[in-house]
Design goal:
By secondary structure, the protein is an alpha+beta fold. 16% of the residues lie in helices and 36% in strands. The chain is globular, with a radius of gyration of 19 Å.
Length: 363
């Protein structure tokens, strides 16, 4: 199960002045990084990253081996951003980053270079206070080989306990990176502050990996892209698709499909899948307003409980009418979510989005 995130999160599309184009890629990534507890990775349509606010804690201890501290930076599969993790932390299996059996984690998210100034603009104690993140002092420069960065330190409550938290925004030749470290206070002896600080000083970039290789490393497969084009992979586990040629779509003219799995173990009561799906649909899309469900059905697929919703909404900024579709496939302890957004003038696009959802399955 995931706890809150703490940084650029939802994908609201109104954080940057309209004059500055907002990369679709950045927006989506942002949404995913700071999703709501239990409703991880829910990126959305063209907006600016608003990652500075929702924590993403892994609530369930990860029972993994504790290898010796690496000699050089370790890069998650298909990632261009890595670091030397603290002793006892291993590459995570469900997200881009590292995890510790105590429940501590390092979450790495990558975005386009254009995202950096947008994130830095909101990277303040005040900007994150509403999310429950209590900063211990102002942001500080963070030295990054071949680039630059900023860091905030603080604490944040989640899952009935308090976490020490570090949030770093970095920029290098391949693009922008967001590194979030969260350590349960009870685990401070296993992952001490000094070890975290040392790890953050080793953040490094490498040449970008191709989108095809990133897709191949995802923890799920998508057999039918429905005619959509892959834009990028974010957080190592989220896939963004669009139906147009633009990677930057400030007007939100292109349809968007986002595929994201749960992070960590998610405890969903038997029969509670529909309630969780409705919550994600109605309350997990802050960049939209007037969200309403127009159709709902439940089925099974290979042992998974599948909840499909369709609905309508309006863009929170422009008021433009939109059509939404969401399919969540629940397996024991995990789920896969496919979210589609299109203009109200493109009803036929929903069928193509649902083809994508029907073809997606966890590995």
């Amino acid at each position: 199960m995931i706890a809150p995130c703490t940084l650029p999160c939802p994908v609201p599309r109104a954080v940057v002045p309209a004059a500055r184009p907002r990369p679709v890629r950045a927006a989506l990534a942002a949404s995913a990084i700071l999703a709501a507890p239990m409703l991880p990775a829910v990126p959305m349509l063209l907006a600016t990253p608003v990652f500075l606010a929702t924590p993403v804690f892994l609530a369930t201890p990860m029972l993994l081996a504790s290898p010796a501290r690496a000699a050089g930076p370790v890069f998650p599969p298909a990632a261009s951003l890595g670091l030397v993790p603290p002793a006892g932390m291993t590459p995570a299996k469900g997200f881009s980053g590292f995890e510790h059996r105590s429940g501590a984690s390092i979450i790495i998210a990558e975005m386009p270079a254009e995202a950096y100034p947008q994130l830095v603009e909101r990277f303040t104690p005040e900007g994150l206070r509403a999310t429950g993140f209590a900063a211990q002092g102002p942001g500080e420069p963070l030295a990054v080989a071949g680039g630059e960065g900023r860091i905030l330190r603080g604490t944040q409550p989640a899952n009935g306990q308090t976490y020490a938290k570090w949030i770093a925004i970095v920029r290098g030749a391949p693009g922008t990176g967001l590194v979030t470290v969260q350590v349960p206070q009870a685990a401070a002896g296993q992952v001490p502050d000094a070890a975290v600080e040392a790890a953050l000083r080793t953040i490094a970039f490498r040449a970008p990996v191709s989108v095809a290789d990133q897709i191949a490393a995802l923890p799920y497969t998508v057999g039918d892209l429905g005619g959509f084009r892959p834009v990028r992979v974010f957080m190592g586990n989220g896939l963004m698709l669009t139906d147009g040629p633009k990677d930057v779509d400030p007007e939100g003219e292109q349809a968007l499909v986002i595929v994201t799995p749960s992070v960590g173990r998610v405890a969903v009561p038997q029969g509670g899948e529909s309630a969780l799906a409705r919550k994600a649909f109605l309350a997990g899309l802050p960049q939209f307003k007037d969200v309403a469900i127009t159709q709902e059905d439940r089925s099974t697929r290979g042992g998974a409980a599948v909840v499909r919703l369709q609905g309508t909404a309006r863009d929170a900024k422009s008021g433009r009418p939109l059509l939404l579709t969401q399919t969540m496939a629940f397996e024991p302890g995990r789920y896969l979510r496919v979210l589609g957004v299109a203009g109200a003038d493109k009803p036929a696009t929903l069928a193509a989005m649902e083809r994508v959802a029907a073809s997606a399955s966890l590995r």
